[in-house]
Amino acid sequence: MKENMGILKKVKQIIEDKKGDNITIINVSEVSSFTDFFIVCQGYNSRQNQAICDELREKLKKEDNIRPAHVEGYESADWILMDYLDFIVHVFSEETREFYKVERLWNDGKIVEL
């Protein structure tokens, strides 16, 4: 768990550096069999969402030698999902985040304060 906190802090910082907003980290390890954490954030246009995704890919690969196992939604950029296995990053547009309400779907998880 401690080793995850460092990478979660880094992911949060990268998102903040790209002006991503409303960042929520949810520990779903006790209610999910496929990942331990969701990092949910939003940008305000498709270019910003793609920039957040690009920066996460670049910095995590370069600095921590980790790559996403899978990325979905990059082209439309309304909801980009980056699956790093131990954690999944969801980069939403404001409207799409409001529509899907991922945090509510996973409210059995615990919000992580960093």
Count of helical segments? 4
The string of secondary-structure elements, in order, is: HEEHEEEHHE
Shape: globular
Question: Which regions are unreliable across 5 or more consecutive residues at pLDDT < 50?
Answer: none
The averaged pLDDT comes out at 94
Tally of individual domains: 1
Number of DSSP E strands: 6
What distance lies between the first and last C-alpha atoms, to the nearest angstrom? 13 Å
What is the strand content? 25-35%
Per CATH, the class reads Alpha Beta
What CATH calls the topology is Beta Polymerase, domain 2
Second CATH tier, the architecture: 2-Layer Sandwich
Numbering strands along the chain, what is their spatial order in the largest sheet? 3-4-5-2-1-6
Briefly say what this structure is:
It contains four helices and six strands; from the N terminus they run αββαβββααβ. It is an alpha+beta fold and 114 residues long. A six-stranded mixed sheet has the order 3-4-5-2-1-6.
Could you outline the blueprint of secondary structure elements for this entry?
Elements: H1 2-17, E1 21-27, E2 37-43, H2 46-64, E3 70-72, E4 79-83, E5 87-93, H3 94-100, H4 102-105, E6 110-111
Describe this structure in words.
- The protein is of the alpha+beta class.
- It has a single domain, classed as Beta Polymerase, domain 2 (2-Layer Sandwich), CATH 3.30.460.10.
- Helices cover 40% and strands 27% of the residues.
- It contains 4 helices and 6 strands.
- The protein has a 6-stranded mixed sheet with strand order 3-4-5-2-1-6.
- A hairpin with a 6-residue loop joins strand 3 and strand 4.
- It is globular, with a radius of gyration of 13 Å.
- The two termini are 13 Å apart.
